[in-house]
Amino acid sequence: MTALEIVQCGPGASVQDAGRYGFRRFGVSTAGAMDRRALALANTLAGNQPDAAALELPLAGAEFRVVGGPVLLAAHGPGTTLAVPGRLVSERSSVQVGDGDTVMIGPPREGVYSYVAVAGGILTRPVLGSRSCHRRSGIGGDVLSPGDRLPCIGGSDNAPLHFPEGMTYCGRDAIRIVPGPQAGFFEDVTWSRLLSSSYRISPRSDRMGLRLEGPALRSSTGHDIVSEGVVPGSVQVPGDGNPIVLGRDCQTTGGYPKIATVISADLDRLAQVQVGRDVRFRIVSEGDAIDAARRSAHWRSSLKSSAEPVNGASPDLLSQNLIGGITRGDDL
Amino acid sequence: MQEDCEVNDPVIRYLGDSALSVEFGNRIDAELVSRVHAFDAALNQLCLAGVVETVPTYRATTVIFDPLTADVREIEAAVLRLASTESDAGRPVGQLWEVPVTYGQDFGIDLDDVAAHAGMTPSDLVEAHADPEYLVAMVGFLPGFSYLSGLDPRLSTPRRSEPRARIPASSISIGGQQTAIGSLEGPSGWHVIGRTPARPFHPGRMPEFLFEPGDRIRFRPVSAREWSELDRGATRGALVAERVDG
Lengths: 332, 246
Fold this sequence. Notes:
The complex is a heterodimer.
Chain A (H helix, E strand, L loop, with lengths): L2 E7 L4 E3 L19 H10 L8 E5 L3 E6 L3 E6 L5 E3 L2 E3 L4 E4 L4 E4 L7 E6 L30 E3 L9 E2 L12 E5 L8 H9 L2 E3 L7 E5 L14 E2 L4 E3 L7 E3 L6 E2 L3 E5 L1 H8 L6 E2 L1 E3 L2 H17 L5 E2 L10 H8 L5
Parallel strand pairs in A: 13-22
Antiparallel strand pairs in A: 1-4, 1-11, 2-3, 3-10, 4-9, 5-8, 5-10, 6-7, 6-9, 12-23, 13-20, 14-15, 14-21, 15-18, 16-19, 17-18, 17-20
Chain B lengths: L10 E4 L4 E5 L6 H16 L5 E6 L3 E6 L6 H14 L10 E8 L7 H8 L3 H9 L3 E6 L6 E4 L14 E4 L3 E5 L2 E4 L4 E3 L2 E5 L20 E6 L2 H12 L6 E3 L2
Parallel strand pairs in B: 5-13
Antiparallel strand pairs in B: 1-2, 2-4, 3-4, 5-12, 5-14, 6-7, 6-13, 7-10, 8-11, 9-10, 9-12
Helix pairs in contact in B: 3-4
């Protein structure tokens, strides 16, 4: 069988898809790609559905070898580079890689997560309906290390694809939030502080949670509640007043008050903000958040209409609308 | 309103664009948790369009929905309708399980400390822990980790000041006024009083999860020898915990 054989990779490299649904009542975290836009872009270039399983590479690059036959693959991420024998490939293109060839992925210089998609997707064994790795529980396998083999279909009959325009990643727009279940635990002055201050991404951030440093958010009603359900995007505030935005690997329940929830359309963008950078927040209604989630999902699924064969694009695919559909990824 | 009139209409609170919490209260309370589970079961029977899953806990159930296909006004209306018509709150909704446990020794290294804290002999503590019928109030923290309500208040023990980096899989532990059946090996600040050979989560076995929120649990003390026999079966995929009729 065709496979990608890891030669080297950074800590935390893993296989991710759209995540695992239906088992949160049993304590199973959703997991899934931290940036589903970048996952969708890489997958679309590889000719896949937007949520097919791909390789997620946090912070560092990776080197792997294609074994057992040729594959079509693409790498996408903020400032990510892809090198195959003899050439550099744009993050807006997929490329056919031969059996035995070595592929080098550079670190995401302007963000945090890169994705490597192969035609047909990565075919590790699904667990509870998903191939996503949840590191803490071991569900979906462990993080990757040299020597690991990721099976895929392979083949040389998939044509490389290309996006005519790039996508801007780290827009500076404020991250949108909806007031959370314990919004009322925090007084108006605390809310003003949250909405008027910058919060810095702490180095202690990971797939379970993005820790923020900035003006402390103190609750007038304490920082312990009887545990209840939480979701990726929940903004928990523990006793030290530093908010934590829960990530895709977060637990299913939590006992800290949740001042807000980051809307799902902005979770992808937030995941790509590097440690030491600042973010700001602004409030939207849940109705606006739902509209944004719908636009975001529509954007991911319509990407394939923007991808064109590398050689010989048909003129109608180059219309402004379709190009705009890619560049507007941040404004959804 | 009188203070003892605790059963209020639930409050709907949004968690962004893909989830909402139906909150029945803010305490750990047997009546409250039963009401949450009865409501959760009734809500799931409706099979509302776009509802992906629900996560019932001690005091609320979280409804995860797909913003592409769910109509949140319809979900809200269904929640309020159910809350006003539910008549069987408190009726047990889940399965009753008998769970073998070996208390103390290497299986429960904190048993003597917890007994001392409660002012009991270790054997009285085992009896007090194994006596009640518990309710699986929620499953969280790790896959299959089952939080139980119904602990004898005399057994309440503050969590350890120094959490342990690892306690064995399937540990039975006490933390504050809660007791739990652990699943996978993992960190814990709770006191380990015993261990069951049953695997609350066993990938590849059917069912993969033993206990569901709303299920009820009885513990059956077993000897270390019986634990080993049952453990061998559990390794091969036997449930070990037994469903009790009625």
